[in-house]
Amino acid sequence: YIGGATSSPDLPVTENAFQRRLASGKASESWWDNGDGFAARISAELDELIYLTYLGGDNLDFVSHNQGMAIDSNGQLVVTGGTRSSDFPQVGGASEFGAKGKLDVFIAVLSEDGSRLIRATRIGGSAIDDLSGVFVDDQDRIYFTGFTKSSDWPVTPNALSTRLTNSAGESFSLERLFSWVNGPKEITPDGVFSVLSSDLETLLYSTYLGGSGPVTDYFERGQAMWIANTGATYIGGLTNSTDFPLFGDSVQKRVFGDIDGFFIRFEQRP
User: Fold this and answer.
1) C-alpha dihedral sign at 109, 114, 118, 120
2) Which residues pair with 79 in a beta bridge?
3) pTM
4) What kind and span of H or E run contains 207?
5) Is the separation of the CB atoms in 35 and 6 below 8 Å?
6) Which of 22-36, 72-86, 98-112: highest mean pLDDT?
7) What is the SS3 assignment for 175?
8) Three-class SS of residue 151?
């Protein structure tokens, strides 16, 4: 399974694809200029394209990098990504959680053959949000991590942190957001960790993860996650905050460089 972003109107979509055209209708050399996300399944021998579908609306959409996909117990593909499209498809009775910002995230579930979008929803706050880690547990609950710059990211009452710790000016552009050459200097988000029910109707748990790190070229964000058979949740990510919350007998108790990794274990499932 692979996913990403494209501004090409001629990807080799399959006949059974849920979405067979570039929804933005605008070809470009830059995928962040109204590109769509895409998702594909390829045979284990790499000799058959089982399905390839666009996934997006009339504005920018993309499938998350790093750990942006997972498979549920029914063999269905769970896809995470970002969207600016007001018409990004929301189906299957899923609830929408605060999505109203400059860049929201989406969670979508595709059928095993890629022909149907079974469920899809958006989640976010009033600024920019992005995901880069997703995991589906044995009850098909969807766990995801990433970052937000939104002070109103939806959190649950039992959250580890209920407010955005980082702060910076709101000035940004999408070109800078996705440019590793110039660097997103105005963007200093917190990490996030959230859990959705399998039907995407209930936000079971959601929290900020971060400190008050300085404005730099780097993101404070969750990057990847894993759920153990015991129910413990493991999250790895990046931080530049000297006050990133530490628990237990931490191996490393301070930031040594411009940016360090972090590793968190939540003992129980939400």
Assistant:
1) positive
2) 69, 108
3) 0.85
4) strand 203-209
5) yes
6) 72-86
7) helix
8) coil
